[in-house]
What we know:
The chain is α+β, with helices and mostly antiparallel strands and 374 residues long. It is built from eleven helices and 13 strands. The protein has helices at 20-37, 39-43, 55-62, 72-76, 95-111, 135-143, 158-171, 263-284, 302-313, 326-329, 335-343; strands at 4-12, 16-19, 66-69, 120-124, 148-152, 177-185, 203-212, 222-231, 237-238, 260-261, 292-297, 353-360, 364-372. It has a nine-stranded mixed beta sheet, sandwiched between helices. Strands 2-3 form a two-stranded antiparallel sheet. The radius of gyration is 21 Å and the shape is globular. The two termini are 21 Å apart. The relative contact order is 0.17. Bound molecules: coenzyme A.
Amino acid sequence: MKQVVISGTGLFTPKDSISNDELVASYNAYAQAFNESNQSAIASGEVEALPESNSAFIEKASGIKSRYVIDKEGVLDPTRMVPHISERPNEEWSVQCEMAISAAKQAMTESGKSASDIDAVIVACSNMQRPYPAVAVEVQMALGIKGFAYDMNVACSSATFGIQAGVSAIQNGSAKAVLMVNPEICSGHLNFRDRDSHFIFGDACTAVIMEAEEDSSSQAKFRILGTKLQTHFSNNIRNNSGFLNRCDENGLGKADKLFVQNGRKVFKEVCPMVADQIASHLEEHQIQASDLKRMWLHQANLSMNQLIAKRVLGRAATEEEAPVILDTYANTSSAGSIIAYHLHKQDIKEGDLGVICSFGAGYSIGSVIVQKVA
Ligand code: COA
């Protein structure tokens, strides 16, 4: 069976960044306006007053200090709290396609591959901007890639599941080199009027090139020693937006058509599952946790990552061992662990071992054990 490598990665980061203070000011202006216009209903107990949000809480509870977004103005306007992303004519590249092109070009440069070397494109992310034609086919066309392309969605674990799909395609001979991209526009499905979660997400796009080790001349390549995937149904992270929404008018515009979570439960239930998965995956490959140079973990919550890394290593991890990018990017869904990998892989030496691990809605967990190749 062919040995597959990740031979290049890329990252698109939107220009606009929003600090916690800016986000909280917008939320609090919205909450104050709501409370004022509902004064009498609040006084009679018919409506609950909205409590204010708080920057110090956000940083302490999540580790997030700021996030990048496609459109800052629309998000921060307390009368709107939704990014402005104009519809485009069908003849123009879509927003997700544009983000994917930018990240993909970087990954192609790092791997030393051109469009003619790649023959499969996977767009893997939490939300596609339309059901069809697949965004991946558009990206394939935009980059001039032959072969086939498809979209897939496993929420925050889309990238690691996409890596396994890429490895399989190369090993079963259906593709020589695979481009896997994760255009996450989380600001599009985040309810900025929900105090419990308005701070959670940011936007970004990552790209990964996979190919057979024998075909790769990249200096940045990492051998994929193994992938392991796990899913377990849970309603604790859910988004009910879908094509059947219009069939029941009662549900239109309701908050469950955006991201909803029970963060406490997610934290408690997912951490042990992730730590166990990494431990058992390492064991299957006869790798000791102490042999791991790095863990590029999904970036949702700092304490969550510290807890998972501690359970895996049996001691607290250093920042070098489990790098953090959620402080400036927030949770970028499937892009998070790949951003951590992209930004924190340059110092890894030949033979060093690491694990990329994602976790999120589903629940879904994906781990990818990698080893630096010369
Ligand atoms: N500002 C101020 N206070 C807030 C607040 C805000 N923005 N949001 C919630 N609070 C309050 C709550 O009302 C609650 O008050 P109470 O104790 O008086 O009831 C208190 O802060 C604690 O809220 P809770 O939701 O329990 O906080 P938490 O410590 O669990 O942190 C998360 C919330 C979301 C940061 C955390 O649970 C988390 O990150 N979980 C994992 C989520 C995850 O990984 N999801 C995957 C997404 S893809």
